[in-house]
Amino acid sequence: MNAETSAPPLAPPPAPPIPAVSTVGLTRTYGTMTALNALDLTVNRGDLFGFIGSNGAGKTTTLRILATFLAPSAGQARVLGHDVVRDADAVRHVIGYMPDFFGVYKDMEVTEYLDFFGACYKIPTAQREKTVNDVLELVGLSEKKGALIGALSRGMQQRLGLARVLIHDPQLLLLDEPASGLDPRARIEMMAILQELQRLGKTIIISSHILSELQTLCNRVAIIEKGKLIYSGPVQGVRDQMASGLVIWVKVAAETDRAIELLKSRSEVAEVAPVDGRIKVTMVNHDIDHSCIADTIVRGGLKLVGLAEDELGLEEVFLRVTRGETQ
Ligand SMILES: Nc1ncnc2c1ncn2[C@@H]1O[C@H](COP(=O)(O)OP(=O)(O)OP(=O)(O)O)[C@@H](O)[C@H]1O
Ligand SMILES: [Mg+2]
After folding, report:
1. Domain that holds residue 305
2. Ligand 1 binding residues, C-beta < 6 A
3. Confidence (pTM)
């Protein structure tokens, strides 16, 4: 036996981690209407994932399928490796789904309500009080333990909704517009709670129709329109992929035509056009250094009187991408 000379067996490459969500060709029709059209979506574990689309784009339909409340018409969806149709029970144990409306529990007290859901998830009685206290603490509602749900503000009700979906300590949270109808302060509080939950290791999918609201919160986003995926990736990539180049507005004291000619000769510039006494310069991309614009004008012997960057807001990019496409 020559164990020393034989080459060690090649270790198989590590299996890629199972994504939190993966859908392939996911489709849902209502009669002749296609609400979700062959959606291929991947959400990785640990993501705080923004799911963006205008009214009627298909966000709720997708989340309801992932939460096993709605059957797909075609295609597959897996949640943490479990098929949402074949292994629906397993999926329900690992997700917390917060629908876009709050249920009809207005006459219940906060703790009673959470205790009720804890019992539904078969959390032993002895452990339930601590679990309820923990989730209330997490969402900042400890002060409101004995309050009637109907007497809570909208923001507090949303946070209570979040507490409810946390009660069985799910790995994946599916939150359908959790910040809708909240005032700016309540929104910020909600976002801070979601960041804390991500830090605690949860994967979170949050839907919204406002891209800019999620740009600092989420590490990745998907945009859907008319049931189709039109973007999936990092937030910054939305602008790079969807928008044309950076626009610079230039004003010269005189000889605008000459300035246009000079600017057109630059390789960094894609387009130059006079607009209302100013010059609109579109650069070839977004990350380009535009100091060459001022240089070109000044070296050409012209007097530069104004230069401003027209940073296309994320929301404008989103509106351009989805303009007029809602159904
Ligand atoms: N039960 C239903 N019967 C018929 N059509 C439906 C049903 N539910 C949803 N739809 C249609 O499917 C499409 C997608 O709806 P969905 O609720 O998923 O959109 P959404 O992105 O969540 O919109 P919103 O921002 O308004 O909540 C819409 O055109 C909607 O009218
Ligand atoms: Mg919806």
Report:
1. 244-311
2. 30, 33, 35, 53, 55-61, 209, 327
3. 0.80
